[in-house]
Amino acid sequence: EVQVVESGGGLVQPGGSLRLSCGASGFVFSSVAMAWVRQAPGKGLEWISHINSGGDMTTYADSVKGRFTISRDNAKNTCYLQMFSLKPEDTAVYYCAKSPHSTVVPHFDYWGQGTQVTVSS
What we know:
The chain is mainly β. About 0% of the residues lie in helices and about 50% in strands. The chain is built from no helices and eleven strands. The chain has strands at about 5, 10, 20-25, 35-40, 45-50, 60, 70-75, 80-85, 90-100, 110, 115-120. Strands 2, 4, 5, 6, 9, 10 and 11 form a seven-stranded mixed β-sheet that branches. A four-stranded antiparallel β-sheet has the order 1-3-8-7, with no helix packed on it. The protein starts with a strand and ends with a strand.
């Protein structure tokens, strides 16, 4: 059974940092790209970042470029999202998504349950 499970969310002050983790099982993690997507209250899904299977190609939405870093550890079957300089507008439920492809293309077949990130003073 394919599973992707996010963790690491929480409450953080503006300007603070958080690192989200996405643990994966049930598939060959090192063969597929992974992505992070978020949904702010009352808004639609927003793609944030993508990383290819080998971890040497990453892409970011303009809204997080320079502040967020995606990475992966294929030995641990885990994908990460390091978030710096957090803003109140980063408040959202963050989802980890699995791609059926090894490259960075906007196609996902499994999602986690999400982890809440709240940026507030």
